[in-house]
Design a protein that fits this description.
By secondary structure, the protein is α/β, with parallel strands linked by helices. Helix content is 37%, strand content 23%. The chain has 16 helices and 21 strands. It has helices at residues 20-35, 63-76, 90-99, 132-147, 157-162, 172-182, 185-190, 207-211, 243-250, 279-292, 310-318, 329-338, 362-376, 380-391, 409-418, 468-483, and strands spanning 10-13, 49-57, 80-84, 102-108, 117-124, 166-169, 194-198, 218-222, 256-260, 267-270, 276-277, 300-304, 322-325, 341-345, 351-353, 395-402, 423-424, 427-433, 438-442, 447-452, 458-465. The strands form four sheets. It has a six-stranded mixed sheet with strand order 1-5-4-2-3-6, with helices on both faces. The protein has a six-stranded antiparallel sheet with strand order 16-21-20-19-18-17. It has a five-stranded mixed sheet with strand order 8-7-9-10-11, with helices on both faces. It is globular.
Length: 486
């Protein structure tokens, strides 16, 4: 089976395609690409050490052993490798790459995917995901090495430790120091809330609770022990997987809840009534807070095509430039590297704001929610209700619809543009966009996004409406489109 890098690295099923053998081949290709001289670019900080790399891992089955093998191959190729001494959040490893002036980093994780998966994320020197062209370089070296039957260089682990070619380190203290510059812990200490933190057995375990020590904030962590099977659920912070968090809140263990995914680069939240507070609302609340409470009135706002237009309405109110990107945090990171971005985020929960590395960060955003609740002195439920009163109601749903057979992504996109209806659910369509899939935008800011998959017979359908009825009508149109594929 070919090894291909997607928008955020390589993921595959453990013991099927994700094996020690294949991982060593991939790592050799990464080492070759980084050493090629064309890896660094205009985004590379000046003081980067071209011979230094960082390796981290999450809590998945064998992640620690996979990370050791990655370190052995990199050391065998002449790199000095800083290897995390225990599982750590992806954003902590990304920050370590930047903080240690490393040329690149490798994170062993399959993020929010099912427990049977593992994966590789490649990080660049600026502390964010590698650019698509860098991932393509890795694929080129992978294919070339295979064609030439060239195996990986591999160094004995203990010998590499003894030679200081592999250095075990703890990425959390420096990461926490960075977070303390972005979060106002005095505000939290002045009005410390009670919060339940659901780490979903992922690499965020202990991190939020640890940095809150000394603030007076009562933080109860659930699902924080090591469990590579993630309790049988996807470690994804969406409502269907947060029954444990709802149970903890409903029994009075906290006044609201936070949840981070398998590698803690995504955030979800829950108010005291056990309503899920999705990333759309979290991003909108944060934008409003940064402008109105912190007085940050400069910089642009970046969101993916599948993210709420509440952001657009707030950006207009504050006179901020708004950029819409295709799906994937790497597109947001592109803007964070080239201009002053106040906040950037995507519907899946990857969000970051000014001062941070170009990386979605569930730990940072969880702390920001705590700061907002403390600063406003009201419940998370009231905060959300106040936001919706200001910017208008926003109901959101997403579904993946199976097709009877694969379809051409370009042909389906062209058909959806050419056959765009004048109205859906009684609302008129005022704009048809085709940046990433096809998006129908209504006169009242409701919208429907249909993204045909390029790899499987699936239509990804996203809808936001001013009423639940409009959302149902929009999703219903998506179902008609799927049914029409014969």
């Amino acid at each position: 089976m070919p090894i291909n890098f997607g928008t955020d690295g390589w993921r595959a099923v453990i013991s099927d395609t994700f094996t020690f053998h294949n991982l060593r081949l991939v790592t050799q290709a990464i080492a070759d690409a980084v050493a090629s001289g064309s890896w660094t670019n205009g985004n590379t900080p000046e003081n980067v050490d071209p011979h230094k790399m960082v390796v981290g891992f999450d809590t998945r089955f064998l992640s620690d052993r996979y990370a050791q093998d990655v370190a052995r191959v990199l050391a065998g190729n002449g790199f000095t490798v800083h290897l995390s001494q225990s599982d750590a959040p992806t954003p902590a490893i990304s920050y370590a790459v930047r903080n240690l002036n490393a040329v690149a980093g490798v994170m062993i994780t399959a993020s929010h995917n099912a427990p049977r998966y593992n994966g590789v994320k490649i990080k660049s020197s600026y502390g964010g995901s590698s650019l698509p062209e860098q991932c393509r370089q890795v694929e080129v070296y992978l294919n070339d090495n295979e064609a030439q039957a060239r195996g990986p260089n591999l160094m004995d682990f203990e010998q590499a430790i003894k030679n200081k070619q592999i250095i075990r380190f703890n990425p959390i203290p420096a990461y926490n120091d960075h977070l303390r510059k972005l979060i106002d812990f005095d505000v939290i200490a002045n009005n410390p809330p009670r919060v339940v933190i659901d780490s979903m057995y992922g690499a965020g375990r202990g991190v939020i609770r640890g940095i809150l020590q000394g603030t007076g904030c009562e933080a109860l962590e659930i699902r924080g022990e090591m469990n590579p099977g993630f309790g049988g659920v996807h470690p994804e912070p969406i409502m269907r997987y947060l029954g444990s968090l709802a149970g903890a809140i409903s029994t009075g263990l906290g006044s609201f809840g936070l949840a981070t995914d398998g590698d803690a680069d995504r955030i979800g939240a829950m108010d005291e009534r056990c309503n899920f507070v999705d990333p759309h609302k979290i991003m909108a609340l944060t934008l409003r807070y940064l402008v109105e409470k912190r007085g940050l009135k400069h910089g642009s706002v970046v969101r993916t095509v599948s993210t709420t237009r509440m952001i657009d309405r707030l950006a207009r109110r504050y006179g901020l430039v708004l950029h819409e990107t295709p799906v994937g945090f790497n597109y947001i990171a592109d803007y964070m590297l080239k201009e002053d971005v106040l906040i950037g985020g995507e519907e899946s929960g990857g969000i970051a704001f000014t001062g941070h590395i170009p990386e979605g960060d569930g730990v940072l955003m969880g702390l920001m929610i705590i700061e907002m609740v403390a600063a406003y002195g009201v419940s998370l439920y009231d905060l959300v209700q106040d936001l919706l009163k200001e910017v208008g109601p926003a109901f959101y749903e997403r579904t993946d619809l199976r097709l009877r057979h694969p379809v051409s992504k370009s042909a389906m996109t062209a058909k959806l543009v050419n056959d765009a209806p004048a109205a859906i659910g009684g609302g008129s369509i005022v704009q048809v966009a085709s940046m990433d899939g096809v998006k129908y935008i209504m006169s009242d800011d409701s919208w429907l996004l249909i993204r045909p998959s390029g790899t499987e017979p699936v239509l990804r359908v996203y809808a936001e409406g001013r009423s639940p009825e409009m959302v149902r009508a929009l999703l219903g149109f998506g179902e008609q489109v799927a049914a029409s594929v014969s």
